[in-house]
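To the wet lab folks,

You asked to see what we're planning to order before we commit. Fair enough. Below is the target structure as tokens, and below that is the sequence we designed to fit it. If anything looks off to you, flag it before the synthesis order goes out.
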């Protein structure tokens, strides 16, 4: 697909806007230049890689809140033709607070081509703009209309007839943002989606009969028409919902009409206005939506009036001023009175707020004694006898205090509050002593050296003696050290950001935005890695292999585990692609968005290429901010405490090495193999975790997933067939993505030559073709020849079954040898050298261990791909040791099942776990 301004459309656009040659050159450079910089997760922001359907490429947003919100708005705006992220930098000129001229190079967030204008767009949070106004008063200003502006940027853009706009976070319509994300799956494939004539006629009939029907009622009335069909009708505007006001994720409040005109007429008939607001109500109010009223009076604020609405006026949000006046005349709205203000002074309010419950009880008792006529209850009868014992002078003092407080504070009860809470002398420590203590704590306690308080106190005594100041006790010094900073600030200064992170204040949004975990089952997923705290051994030789890595994908909305992969190799792009491959095999689709951390495996070309290929949005978590991945981090904790710590060979004892003995050494207790562990992880994830109610959901993850599928639609158009085409898309390629077909040799990938019969064609020789290779068997590759992917082989017997990871280790060993022999590592590594080195050094520990790891990983992958009831692969010469008395009793009466041999020379036996 071409972009809207490709070809002859761009010169016509220049002529329509009347842009000069300089402006045309600038805009042409903006369209042809790559992004000037790649956004990173700095200062706690979460960058987003968005597959734009309008731009046919990946558009990056530096923040998931402000920049990404503008990106979605530009994607769905009819006025926006094209938009580009991180355009070439422009020079700005302004004077700073010291009146010095500043000329920085500035990179705007976006450059936008609109129907009637073109220019730069800079997105900022309001809080950041307020700070910048103080630090850079001439760069950002707030004009009289309440709009944020950048005068230096506007001055540069005006030279070329362009615009420069500052987009603040308070301009974002979060209801529209959430709706766009909710319908994103349908927008991306809108040209392929249609609603049947019969279903559309049924939906139109229901909506015409009941204009303003809620989305929830429409789904019930239109059954068995699926939610997918209703969503498609809304996206294709066959049905109308005001997406800027109503959230589709709240179907009980979203009103559905046949068209925009009918919706406007419905609002006009109901007399809905915008200046009638709610002062206090227990639920969130959305303008124009029907409210389920429980019959209690509404307390509203209209202009300078306080209004109480009784049952006859049950929908206060559908009242115009004329309708409101009519209801007042008819007596359906009562209590219309001028606004009353409290007679208590601010000082009196402060005294009441600071009073303790016991103080209020004492004041109430004194008032009963001095003003018995105000009370006619049983408690007053008891107090009458007690009041006779109070001296008359005391009662006169209380009455006098009451009269004075009534004159001073507006309430006599305040004068009867006891003053014991305000008793106590002033602090006896001099200000100079406090300053010395704070200085000593800053320089000798709040440091990364982490000195104890005793050392800081000694330094204080020395400096106090030198300055001739009085000293305080050690206890008082320790108390001052505890309260001179917050726990977070003190831990941050002494132990660093990671240790202080648990005490960091949570983010409290001032307004409702979008749900961080998505609004339907496949809206968002998290992927991360965990080094499993369990020592494993080889299923063939029994050799200890150490700990493995678990790569896990969780759907954050229903908290359901989508896929998982186990391997001995450290996290890499292979782990990421494998877990996505297993997700497609199990569910037949990928999530709409994936949240990952900043690891290099998630920034690999292969991972990002797969996401772009299937239009998956990527969110990158900030570094050292685990709260951004809380669903997955919490799942890792549950996995360890509920599963791993119950297995023999777990590494809890290794966390305290000084207390560990031979009897508790996890390496000596290792009995689990990787295939057996994969089978047990599958059982825990699919049969135990999914059936336990989740505290954040109030139901099990399986029930939450099925409920979302029924309510939000199955979205079958996003299904991905698990075939050779998809599996090949998970294979890596070369750095360039292509290779040259050498006559008689084929294509070269990773030092190896691959050949197929189609390369004999003279039209193919000396051409550059796209290539891919199998990361788990380097002797198999693919080349795209004649519009089709052809399977190519590297016929080297010594490399049969060799993984990409092992090939990398062999190449690294060869480079080390070349460095010793030739004094440099940049010596060509040939295919023959790799084969000879693997044959000659097969017994070396590194390669042997990697071969064991690969063999175990292939067996574990067989278990994970097998689905329900997949067998665990074990060696015929090694029996899986039972971990408890129950399993010992079970295993005695059962023999392991067998299956045909697999692999080169490996006769592996399959043990099906008996439930």
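Sequence we intend to order:
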């Amino acid at each position: 697909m071409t972009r809207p301004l490709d070809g002859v459309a761009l010169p016509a656009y220049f002529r329509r806007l009347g842009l000069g040659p300089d402006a045309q050159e600038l805009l042409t450079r903006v369209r042809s230049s790559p992004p000037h910089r790649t956004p990173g997760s700095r200062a706690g922001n979460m960058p987003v890689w968005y597959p734009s359907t309008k731009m046919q490429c990946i558009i990056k947003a530096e923040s998931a809140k402000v920049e990404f919100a503008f990106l979605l708005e530009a994607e769905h705006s009819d006025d926006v033709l094209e938009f580009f992220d991180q355009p070439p930098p422009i020079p700005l000129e302004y004077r700073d607070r010291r009146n010095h001229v500043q000329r920085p190079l500035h990179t705007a967030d976006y450059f936008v081509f609109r129907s009637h204008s073109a220019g730069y767009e800079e997105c900022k949070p309001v809080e950041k703009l307020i700070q910048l106004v103080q630090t850079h008063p001439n760069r950002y200003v707030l004009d009289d209309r309440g709009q944020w502006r950048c005068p230096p940027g506007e001055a540069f853009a005006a030279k070329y007839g362009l615009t420069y706009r500052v987009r603040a976070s308070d301009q974002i319509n979060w209801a529209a943002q959430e709706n766009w994300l909710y319908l994103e799956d349908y927008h991306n494939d809108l040209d392929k989606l249609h609603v049947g004539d019969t279903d559309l006629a049924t939906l139109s009939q229901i909506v015409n009969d009941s204009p303003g029907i809620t989305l929830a009622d429409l789904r019930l009335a239109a059954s068995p028409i699926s939610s997918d069909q209703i969503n498609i009708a809304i996206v294709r505007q066959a049905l109308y919902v005001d997406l800027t006001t109503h959230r589709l994720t709240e179907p009980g409040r979203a009103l559905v009409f046949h068209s925009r005109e009918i919706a406007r007429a419905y609002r006009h008939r109901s007399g809905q206005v915008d200046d009638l607001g709610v002062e206090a109500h227990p639920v969130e109010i959305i303008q124009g939506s029907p409210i389920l009223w429980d019959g209690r009076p509404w307390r509203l604020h209209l202009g300078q009036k306080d209004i109480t609405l009784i049952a006859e006026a049950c929908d206060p949000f559908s009242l115009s001023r004329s309708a409101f006046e009519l209801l007042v005349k008819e007596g359906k709205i009562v209590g219309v009175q001028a606004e009353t203000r409290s007679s208590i002074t601010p000082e009196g309010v402060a005294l009441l707020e600071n009073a303790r419950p016991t103080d209020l009880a004492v004041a109430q008792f004194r008032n009963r004694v001095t003003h018995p006529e105000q009370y006619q209850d049983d408690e007053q009868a008891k107090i009458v006898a007690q009041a006779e014992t109070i001296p008359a002078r005391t009662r006169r003092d209380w009455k006098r205090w009451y009269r004075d407080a009534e004159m001073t504070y507006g309430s006599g009860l305040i004068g009867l509050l006891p003053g014991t809470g305000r008793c106590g002398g002033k602090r006896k420590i001099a200000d100079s002593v406090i300053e010395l203590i704070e200085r000593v704590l800053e320089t000798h306690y709040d440091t990364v050296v982490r000195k104890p308080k005793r050392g800081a106190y000694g330094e204080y005594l020395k400096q106090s003696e030198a300055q001739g100041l009085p000293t305080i006790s050690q206890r008082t010094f320790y108390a001052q050290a505890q309260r001179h900073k917050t726990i977070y600030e003190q831990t941050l200064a002494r132990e660093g950001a990671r240790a202080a992170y648990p005490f960091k204040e949570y983010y409290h949004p001032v307004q409702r935005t979008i749900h961080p975990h998505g609004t339907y089952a496949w809206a968002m997923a998290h992927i991360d890695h965990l080094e499993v705290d369990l020592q494993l051994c080889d299923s063939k030789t029994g050799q200890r292999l150490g700990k493995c890595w678990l790569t896990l994908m969780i759907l954050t909305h229903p908290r359901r585990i989508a896929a998982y992969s186990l391997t001995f190799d450290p996290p890499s792009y292979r782990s990421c692609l494998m877990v996505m491959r297993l997700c497609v095999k199990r569910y037949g689709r990928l999530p709409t968005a994936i949240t990952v951390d900043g690891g290099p495996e998630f920034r690999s070309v292969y991972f990002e290429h797969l996401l772009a290929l299937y239009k998956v949005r990527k969110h990158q978590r900030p570094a050292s901010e685990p709260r951004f991945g809380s669903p997955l981090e919490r799942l890792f904790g549950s996995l360890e405490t509920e599963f791993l710590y119950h297995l023999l060979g777990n590494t809890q004892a290794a966390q305290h090495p000084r207390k560990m003995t031979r009897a508790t050494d996890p390496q000596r207790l290792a009995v689990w193999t990787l295939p057996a562990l994969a089978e047990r992880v599958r059982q825990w994830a699919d049969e135990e975790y999914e059936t336990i109610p989740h505290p954040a959901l109030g139901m099990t993850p399986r029930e939450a997933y099925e409920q979302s599928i029924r309510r939000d639609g199955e979205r079958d158009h996003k299904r991905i067939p698990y075939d050779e085409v998809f599996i090949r898309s998970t294979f890596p390629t070369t750095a360039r993505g292509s290779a040259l077909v050498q006559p008689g040799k084929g294509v070269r990938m990773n030092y190896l030559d691959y050949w197929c019969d189609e390369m004999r064609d003279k039209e193919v020789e000396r051409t550059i073709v796209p290539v891919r290779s199998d990361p788990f068997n380097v002797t198999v590759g693919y080349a795209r020849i004649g519009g089709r992917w052809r399977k190519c082989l590297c016929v080297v017997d010594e490399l049969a079954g060799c993984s990409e990871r092992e090939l990398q280790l062999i190449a690294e060993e060869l480079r080390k040898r070349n460095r010793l022999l030739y004094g440099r590592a940049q010596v060509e590594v040939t295919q023959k050298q790799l084969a000879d080195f693997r044959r000659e050094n097969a017994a070396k520990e590194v390669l042997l261990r990697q071969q064991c790891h690969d063999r175990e990983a292939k067996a574990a992958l067989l278990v994970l791909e097998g689905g329900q009831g997949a067998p665990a692969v074990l060696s015929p010469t090694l029996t899986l040791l039972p971990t408890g008395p129950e399993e010992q009793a079970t295993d005695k009466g059962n023999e392991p099942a067998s299956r045909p041999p697999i692999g080169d020379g490996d006769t592996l036996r399959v043990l099906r776990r008996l439930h």
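Structural context that might help your review: DSSP finds 31 helices and 33 strands in the chain. The two ends are 54 Å apart (CA to CA).

Thanks,
Computational group
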